Amino acid sequence: MNIKSLLLGSAAALIAVSGARAADAVVVAEPEPAEYVKICDVYGSGYFYIPGTETCLRIGGYVRYDIGMGDVGAFTGAESVDHEDGDVQDTWYKNTRFTLKTWTGQETELGTLKTYTETRFNFGNNNRHAFFNSTDSFDSNPAGMKSVSLNFAWIQLGGLRVGKDESAFNTFIGYAGNVIQDTLVPYGGFDTNVVQYYFDAGNGLSAVVSLEEGSGDAGAAVLDGAGNYVFNATSGNDTIDSYVPHVVGGVKYTQGWGDIIAVGAYDSTWEEWAGKVRLDVNATSELSLFLMAGYGTDDNIDRNFYKQWGGNWAVWGGGTYKFNEKTSFNLQASSDDDKNYGVAANVAYDIVPGLTVTAEVDYDHDGKFGDVDNRNWTNGDKKNSVGGLLRFQRSF
């Protein structure tokens, strides 16, 4: 066989194989179009369109770890019982929280339709004082699953908002500074169902009217000497007891220098009034200051859902100084008519974007320490108490 015959034979074989394969060709399916998530930038960063709808959704929240020590504030003052000798002793306050938040927004012919929800899950010790109970066993301070709370769940169309919120007596005028323990002298009740209307007049002027339910119980019904049930009030934190709601109204004027705000509230259960005014000033690009004052009546009860400070008047003041983009110093001082004083100061440091460490020191003076009727909000069991808190928080 010569070279020419070999080449011709090989070419013929290749053609035959190719023809056989062509007759049995594989059909490749066309790729199906993928529906990718579409970014929605109408309401800010983090929103995306829910596939198949015109609704924009944002999901966020934070994971937080608190370590507290000392005798003052809502997050310290923990005690336990020694398992060997039964002595009551101080212990750490620990709490881990996971908070899930959702926001939605959609444009309609009646305005923007929005919702907001916030749910909190907590694990830690209960931050209570230890004691021996009636069965001669000790009630210590074990760690475990604590509260699961629905802190916010509201719907808003245009300026109308309904659902679970915090009282406009606090949200509209602002919280008492950027410290963690801002209620050493309390400034109003929080959790409530609401029917609210927000009005923005432009040029920095806005207003709110809020019908509220309140929350909590004010005491218990007991029999008097005549056999009639009367209310024994042990706390002013209460829910409405008729069809008449609590009412809050406020006005705000905001400009580049800061703002000035006033709110007033009527507690329908106790027929008491309370009000607060506030001034915020952006002194420099690094320094912001605030001053807030409150006054309330106490004709029928010492403290109601809105006036939760002692006596008629209270004042809060402080500010924030930003050393740089990562580090800030926050301070708040407060006092009320019952000679309760509180000072809270912290340094917050952003280790990386989204992760903040805050170290805070708190001081509380109980103006009515030892009184049977004392209802100071702190857990301190001394006239003068000092405590501290270290917080790690990853926000997303």
Automatic annotation (TrEMBL):
Its main location: membrane. It is found in: Cell outer membrane. One of its GO terms (biological process) is monoatomic ion transport. It comes from the Bacteria. Keywords: Cell outer membrane, Ion transport, Membrane, Porin, Signal, Transmembrane, Transmembrane beta strand, Transport. Forms passive diffusion pores that allow small molecular weight hydrophilic materials across the outer membrane. Consists of 16-stranded beta-barrel sheets, with large surface-exposed loops, that form a transmembrane pore at the center of each barrel. The pore is partially ocluded by a peptide loop that folds into the pore lumen. This is Porin.
